[in-house]
């Protein structure tokens, strides 16, 4: 064309449908981004361009040209910012609980609408039972102000979590910080049992209940250091006979070394320090 534009004034209908257009920006380039718009709303614009002829033989007057009016609905393709996540459970408490109802992980996260977004409508919750494992969708929350979730009915508290935010155009944010929580295992052994077939305390077992134990390496020795019993079953169930010879063992004091294998967020792990102690085997009913 024989002229060049050097300035553009952008007009926007405010409010939409009023036929009243106000200038919202003056720019030197033929483009402009109107941000912070509401999803699903209609916006109308036109542009006034100011320019001059480029040919020296033509007048040096400023040329003013108006564009057509255009209305459109913005499409949001930008994902919201991710929430910040924390996870807690009974392992943070001093008291030991064996109530199955307490086997739950409590998730709490921030609402991005309060800091870095304005149209978050819900969240996706992701879970992996192992640290470093693949995440799968656990559940969803369909209200932006609902920023808590309980993962219940668990056999193991160990696992990793992440949360994403979903906006009104169903753009999904990046993962929140990943939070991994671990089990707090509990395994204790008594120091006496009475295998005399009276129906009470006839088997040597751990103090029940036990928690988050996958297995053990239990070895029991007599006073001379000879192995008389071994098992990998965490319930032990020693009846006072030798697992080596099958013979009934005498009353007396026996020594044990028990390595415990606990269920953790990184898999089954051997507890570094074994349990050690003495067992009094008593058969008399006095």
Beta-strand percentage range: 35-45%
What is the count of DSSP helices, taking H or I runs of 4+ residues? 0
Class derived from helix and strand content: mainly beta
| Poorly predicted parts | none
The CATH superfamily of the largest domain is known as Immunoglobulins
What is the C-alpha radius of gyration, as a whole number of Å? 36 Å
What is the rounded distance between the termini?
116 Å
What is the count of structural domains?
A: 3
Q: How would a crystallographer describe the biggest sheet?
A: 6 strands, mixed
- Give me the CATH architecture of the largest domain, please: Sandwich
Oligomer: single chain
Q: Which whole number gives the mean pLDDT?
A: 93
Anisotropy-based shape: rod-shaped
What helical percentage do the residues reach?
under 10%
Number of strands: 18
Polypeptide structure, described:
Helices cover 0% and strands 41% of the residues. It has 286 residues and is an all-beta fold. The protein has 3 domains: 3-72, Immunoglobulin-like; 85-181, Immunoglobulins (Immunoglobulin-like, Sandwich); 192-281, Immunoglobulin-like. The strands form 4 sheets. Strands 13, 14, 15, 16, 17 and 18 form a 6-stranded mixed beta sheet that branches. The mean pLDDT is 93.
Produce a short descriptive summary:
With 286 residues, the protein is an all-beta fold. It has no helices and 18 strands.
Write the layout of secondary structure elements.
Elements: E1 3-13, E2 21-27, E3 43-53, E4 62-66, E5 70-72, E6 85-88, E7 105-109, E8 120-128, E9 136-141, E10 148-151, E11 159-167, E12 179-181, E13 192-193, E14 213-221, E15 227-231, E16 252-264, E17 267-270, E18 275-281
Parallel strand pairs: 13-18
Antiparallel strand pairs: 1-2, 1-3, 3-4, 3-5, 6-7, 7-10, 8-9, 8-11, 11-12, 14-15, 14-16, 16-17, 16-18
